[in-house]
Specification:
Neuraminidase, four-stranded antiparallel beta sheet, mainly beta
């Protein structure tokens, strides 16, 4: 395996060198190559005559681990503070607990992601300062900052064992924790759903997502409520208008009258006009569904199909970790010419291999573009790409990060790639975000989570992923690693 990983790294170095040459040829200018492996920056905009310079996005190497534990971490999330972009908060399924079961861990940085500290959401190990003490485990973390710099962490809490002693406890719940100090502490933890009864074990609350209204600060959460032990499911929404202290009764927003009963992986975002946008995948019909609310979540439009999707196999070739098909959404709320643009990305298997597709809406969700492939194909076979995470820069650029196996001819080892579009989603430039490839099998389970995290700062973007570069088949290990891409001169100044 070490020989394969070394060979993969050599191929990556060759690929990056070829990318540099192509950029130089296209731009007609000079591009500096440094010990960072791949260095972009300003190049001639055309003709080489000293005219306007064009900035070429580049990754800031080396990658930096946000966690460094002997126990597992996976399923990461990340958010950049809009008030202080050097303050970044991340989260993960963290197994560094007294029981060894999963809990929601969080990490924070005050220097743009160069150094990190870690802690756990209160409630683990029977800590009764938090309502989560009644649960055996917690996971599926998702982060979102509010306009005033408060940060919210949503997650699920669950009891794995429906034994008699647990029947009077809630089987599962959605929770939201709040931090007012840049993610260093989360003292406010509130259950969004809390029906402690025997029947609660027949409903499992799963895969929540969270968004904060950039104007009012209202907090919106969507999730999947699996009924009758997974026989059917519905997407629900709840909103808090008091900083996460109380929540409205969950409202079903998926179209159950049309037999839309296998839904999962909802995405919720709020634009600068306060419109709430929600998208998800309906697996029975192979469609991406979408709805919106223009009254703060009091009501939602009838859900409609905006794209078709061919779901990935539960396991892609050559691996035993699961690869679920879920979408990711981002909205431009920066107030510029592209304000309100919605980006939606998902993995798709229509070509017989896993690709990343994306569609956009520039009219608030009324219409959607024809999906395009985000990953750049090389030859007849491009190997597999999956787990897209989306963001939109303050320049309006559309950004997607994903796991990618293009660097391994055997379609096995994982790399992380970053794609960016500056032409409204017609084409995407792909650049490597991870400096090495790694084997996803060398994780606990094996399990690499179900998604990645991406968040844009001013001129730069940070991504987080589950990475097993320090694990082996004999000694499995997965940590949360981070990568930064600089895509404007502003980014070089603000996060050097």
């Amino acid at each position: 395996m070490l020989d394969r990983m070394t060979a993969s790294k050599d191929r990556r170095m060759t690929l990056i060198a070829l990318m540099v040459v192509l950029i130089m040829l296209a731009a007609g200018g000079l591009l500096a190559i440094t010990t960072d492996i791949f260095k972009g920056g300003l190049i001639d905009g055309g003709g080489g005559g000293g005219g306007e310079k064009e900035f070429v996005a580049y990754p800031r190497f080396p990658n930096i681990p946000a966690t460094s534990l002997e126990t597992a971490n996976n399923e990461p999330t990340v958010a950049v503070n809009p008030i202080d972009p050097m303050n970044i908060v991340a989260g993960s399924n963290d197994y560094g607990t007294p029981s060894g079961d999963a809990w929601v861990g969080y990490m924070w940085s005050r220097d743009g992601g160069k150094t990190w500290k870690r802690d756990l959401i209160p409630g683990y190990d029977n800590d009764r300062s938090s309502p989560l003490w009644r649960f055996q485990g917690a996971g599926d973390p998702v982060l979102a900052f509010g306009p005033n710099g408060d940060v919210y962490m949503a997650g699920i809490a669950f009891n794995r064992d429906p034994a008699l002693i647990n029947l009077l406890k809630p089987g599962s719940s959605i929770f939201v924790a709040k931090s007012t100090d840049g993610g260093e502490t989360f003292p406010q933890v509130v259950l969004v759903t809390d029906p402690p009864s025997i029947t609660n074990f027949a409903t499992f609350h799963d895969k929540e997502w969270i968004a904060v209204d950039p104007i009012t600060g209202d907090v919106h959460v969507t999730w999947t409520a699996f009924q009758l032990y997974g026989i059917s499911s519905a997407l629900v929404h709840s909103v808090s208008r008091d900083g996460g202290r109380s929540w409205t009764r969950p409202k079903v927003i998926s179209e159950i009258t049309q037999k839309e009963r296998q839904v999962q992986g909802s995405q919720v975002e709020v634009d600068s006009k306060g419109v709430i946008h929600v998208a998800w995948i309906e697996y029975d019909f192979g469609t991406i569904r979408y709805t919106r609310s223009k009254d703060g979540g009091d009501s939602f439009e009838t859900a409609r199909t905006i794209a078709s999707v061919v779901v990935l196999p539960y396991n892609l070739p050559n691996n035993n970790y699961r690869t679920p098909t879920m979408c990711d959404m981002a909205i431009d709320d920066h107030g510029g010419e592209t304000d309100g643009t919605i980006l939606l990305a998902w993995p798709d298997h229509r070509t017989g291999q896993a690709d990343i597709l994306a569609t956009i809406s520039t009219d608030g969700g009324d219409t959607w573009s024809t999906p395009v492939t985000v990953n750049n194909q090389r030859g007849d076979k491009d190997n597999d790409q999956f787990f897209p995470a989306a963001a939109i820069g303050n320049d309006g650029s559309l950004q997607v990060m994903f796991y990618d196996r293009r660097d391994d001819p055997e379609n096995d080892l994982l790399s992380v790639y970053f794609a960016r579009s500056i032409d409204g989603g017609l084409t995407y430039q792909n650049i490597p975000m991870s400096e090495v490839s790694f084997d996803g099998e060398n994780t606990r389970g094996p399990f690499i989570g179900d998604y990645l995290g991406l968040s844009a700062g001013p001129g730069w973007t940070i991504g987080v992923w589950c990475d097993s570069r320090e694990g082996t088949s004999e000694s499995v290990r997965s940590d949360i690693w981070t990568g930064v891409v600089i895509w404007s001169k502003e980014g070089e100044v603000n996060n050097p």
